[in-house]
Write a structure and sequence with these properties.
The complex is a heterodimer of chains A (435) and B (370). Chain A is an all-alpha fold. Chain A is 70% helix and 0% strand. The longest helix of chain A is centred in the last third of the chain and has 36 residues. With 370 residues, chain B is α+β, with helices and mostly antiparallel strands. The chains are: A mainly alpha (435), B alpha+beta (370).
Chain lengths: 435, 370
């Protein structure tokens, strides 16, 4: 019995490890690659601690422009969705009871419709409107920001509405009646009674709307026009090759999210703690009491550690320069490559000597020196060009296999794939930074 | 404070679809009067109040306040203020902001509002509580804040929808006197909705007793109690012993009823029934428990009946005796506790007597269901 419980516990721990590893593993790996110097995001082999990818990110105008567009669209979507959602939710409380279920289904439908469909239909619909009104093709109705805000709001407004409905269900309509009875107009009753009551819901709906807008891809991809958002830019970047500056962006977003979540958690916990201790509501609502936070609140401690870590990172980044390390690594690589070249030359010499001994070769052509593009000496066992033009060769040049695998089969490729086309790409960012 | 104005309901009908909530209500409430609507829940009294305050329009008939027809005038334009059953204090506003909400919507400055709030807080005996939130007040305090909030709007008519129902007994009794005092001080018309006859009788100048959308009687409290207009009023207001039967003879003010189980009994004919009660009509005779007494002798009479004591309940100032008359007729008698030896003992047969002028005869009709 007892060992069974023990086993169960072990199983639980393993399960939790696997579970959290699955959840958080990719994020951790991505974060680490942001600090590694190789130009392709990778965690192993660890070469040099570097912050250059943050620099690259900060100087990447497309990413920055994407962030700017995302923010503009996010704010626009928040405003539009919150207003639409609130109106929709209020409508639900006012509508004829028999219509309520039908109305609810209709306004909730956009959540169930795929974002791609919404994107296409937004594009088509406003294009039609544009044509009907006889505007130019570059009118605001075809503007990427306008379309994206409208397209995203079609379903984000429904999310907001769900949040508002939940809050409205706890609203006592007697309060509105009381306000009216005391002489308030309908607008005053709405502004002074209902709106303050909805405030927390408006806050959470706004956050929800902003996050949903910021991360949206499949609707935006049809509507962005000349204003690509961050997600669009990232997707395009990945298509044309990736470098760790994206990891560094991911790292920043992860850290911001974690800090935000922890701060919120602390706020909630503190409120609950204070309420549980019988503190009046007023005392909970304001004031920031530091010592109390630390009492049995791991989230607070983590946040403080994170903040300290952040500050020390910034300080370290300013003091530490990875250039030396990167130069070292580069030097090592250069030496390694030099060695390989030397080896190959020696081999070639040997081969030429052998051939001279054997007489003229099958093609009867002269033996040119390698021109650097890839025409290579023949290796007799393998065919005229030593397989160097075999289509798979290019793919085999995975960055980590280059150093150790090639020297072992010198007969395979003349230059150990040093001049494979992708090699140039890989060294690109490193050269950038040395500029 | 403005003097109260009169409120008139002329032939008011209120329907919700096929359901008639209020049927032909004719009420005239004098200025400065404390008027109550009394009835069981679901009888339409709150509906009438909402029609007066403007939250719903009558399907037929007119509501006049101060002689002015209120049709088409919204609740925010009517000279009424309503105190809600659940008080409906604004939970996110401080007490003083709650009280002066009516001034805020009129655009008064914060200083003025604060000053007025302090005056009103003084009046309701809650000084220095203005900066609290309603959730920090006790039930009775909230009650008073709600009253202050309504009074701050300086209404001509104050409408109260069972405002005391959420309070405990002691506080309720205390608030009754307090409400009455406030009404006399400010002098405006109060319209009070309640299902508690004690509240209605103690506070009101006049009471309208309602049954299923119909107003059965409008009169002052004593008249409603002593001279009910219908069997429903007789059985709903206070307690009553009911004797069903037929009218055997009529002699001026009095009639003799041949009751089904308790023989012939004499009683006064109710004012409302004087003109139409005839010999042979089905009738109901009502005798209040406190009108019964133990007869000095066993001689039979038209105002006497015999019954066996089943059990007793001691209630402090009175004790209730539950008896069983002939054929199992249940009779209740209340005796004032004045320190006498109680003559009732379980299983003992007693002869009860009552003064015929304290009993009433009404044409048979619907009773208040218990």
């Amino acid at each position: 019995m007892r060992s069974e419980g023990y086993l169960l516990k072990i199983f639980l721990v393993v399960y939790l490890l696997v579970f959290f590893g699955y959840l958080l593993g990719p994020l951790i790996v991505m974060s680490i690659t942001a600090f590694n110097s190789p130009s392709f995001p990778k965690m192993t082999p660890w070469e040099c601690l570097t912050f250059e990818w943050f620099d690259v990110l900060a100087n990447d105008t497309r990413i920055l422009n994407g962030i700017k567009n995302s923010l503009i669209i996010g704010v626009g979507t928040v405003i539009l969705s919150v207003i639409l959602g609130l109106a929709g939710a209020l409508m639900l409380t006012q509508i004829w009871p028999k219509m309520r279920a039908t109305y609810y289904t209709i306004v909730i439908a956009p959540i169930l419709i795929p974002g791609v469909v919404l994107g296409i239909s937004t594009l088509v619909f406003w294009d039609r409107i544009n044509v009907m009104l006889g505007f130019e093709t570059d009118s605001f109705l075809n503007n990427g920001i306008f379309l994206t805000i409208l397209g995203q709001s079609t379903f984000i407004a429904s999310y907001c509405m769900l949040v508002f409905i939940a809050r409205l269900q706890r609203f006592d309509t007697g309060l509105t009646e009381a306000a009216l009875d005391l002489g308030a107009t309908n607008v005053q009753a709405f502004r002074k009674i209902l709106l303050p009551f909805m405030k927390p819901a408006i806050g959470s709906a706004a956050v929800l709307a902003f996050l949903a807008s910021f991360e949206n891809y499949n609707t935006t991809t049809f509507t962005f026009g000349k204003f690509p958002t961050l997600t669009i830019e990232l997707a395009q970047k990945v298509r044309y090759g990736i470098n760790p500056s994206i990891s560094s962006l991911a790292f920043i977003i992860i850290v911001l999210t974690v800090i935000g979540a922890l701060a919120h958690e602390i706020y909630i916990r503190r409120q609950q703690l204070a309420l549980a201790n019988g503190a009046p509501v007023k005392a909970v609502a304001n004031g920031f009491k530091l010592p109390r936070i630390f009492q049995g609140n791991p989230a607070a401690i983590i946040l403080v550690l994170l903040a300290l870590g952040g500050f020390s990172t910034i300080w370290f980044a300013q003091v530490y320069s990875p250039q030396e390390c990167i130069l070292d690594v580069r030097e090592q690589k250069r030496i390694l490559q030099q060695q390989k070249i030397d080896e190959i030359r020696q081999q070639r010499l040997q081969q030429q000597q052998q051939k001279k001994l054997q007489g003229p070769d099958i093609f009867g052509s002269d033996k040119k020196a390698p021109s650097g593009s890839g025409s290579a000496p023949q290796s007799p066992g393998k065919g005229a060009f030593g397989d160097i033009f075999a289509p798979k060769n290019l793919e085999k040049t995975a960055p980590d296999s280059q150093q150790d695998s090639k020297p072992k089969n010198p007969g395979k490729g003349a230059f150990g794939d040093i001049f494979a086309p992708k090699n140039l790409d890989k060294t690109g960012p490193q050269e950038n930074t040395t500029d | 404070m403005s003097r109260g104005v009169e409120v008139n309901l002329d032939n008011v009908w209120i329907r919700f679809g096929d359901f008639v909530a209020v049927r032909e209500a004719n009420v005239s409430i004098k200025g400065g009067e404390f008027f109550s609507f009394l009835g069981p829940s679901g009888c339409g009294k709150t509906t009438i109040l909402r029609a007066v305050s403007g939250f719903l329009e009558p399907s037929e008939g007119t509501v006049k306040i101060g002689g002015r027809d209120m049709a088409g005038i919204g609740p925010n334009k009517r000279p009424t203020a309503l105190i809600f059953q659940n008080l409906a204090l604004f939970p996110l506003m401080k007490v003083w902001e709650n009280i002066t909400f009516s001034l805020e919507v009129q655009g008064f400055s914060k200083v003025d509002r604060r000053k007025r709030a302090d005056e009103l807080l003084e009046m309701i005996a809650l000084p220095d509580q203005g900066d609290k939130l309603p959730s920090e007040l006790s039930g009775g305090q909230k009650q008073r804040v709600a009253i202050a909030r309504a009074l701050c709007a300086e209404p001509d008519v104050l409408l109260l929808d069972e405002p005391l129902s959420a309070l405990d007994l002691k506080l309720r009794q205390h608030m009754r006197t307090e409400l009455r005092e406030i009404q006399q001080r400010v002098g405006i018309t109060f319209i009070y909705i309640t299902h508690d006859q004690g509240e209605a009788l103690t506070m009101s100048d006049n009471v309208a007793v309602m049954r299923a959308g119909v107003i059965d009687q409008i009169a002052d409290g004593q008249t409603v109690y002593d001279d009910p207009a219908t069997p429903f009023v007789a059985s709903f207001v206070g307690e009553n012993n009911v004797f069903r039967g037929t009218v055997k003879s009529i002699d001026g003010e009095f009639a003799i009823v041949d009751t089904n189980r308790s023989g012939e009994l004499a009683a006064r004919i109710a004012t409302s029934a004087k003109s139409n009660l005839k010999v042979g009509d089905a009738a109901m005779m009502f005798v209040r428990p406190e009108a019964c007494n133990i007869a000095p002798d066993d001689a039979p009479g038209k105002n006497r009946l015999t019954a066996m004591v089943k059990h007793e309940e001691f209630e402090g100032q009175i004790y209730n005796v539950f008896l069983e008359g002939s054929e199992g007729k249940e009779i209740k008698m209340s005796l004032v506790n004045i320190g006498q030896n109680r003559q009732s003992a379980e299983g003992k047969d007693l002869t009860l007597e009552y003064a015929p002028e304290h009993a009433v005869v009404l044409p048979a009709g619907e009773l208040a269901s218990e």
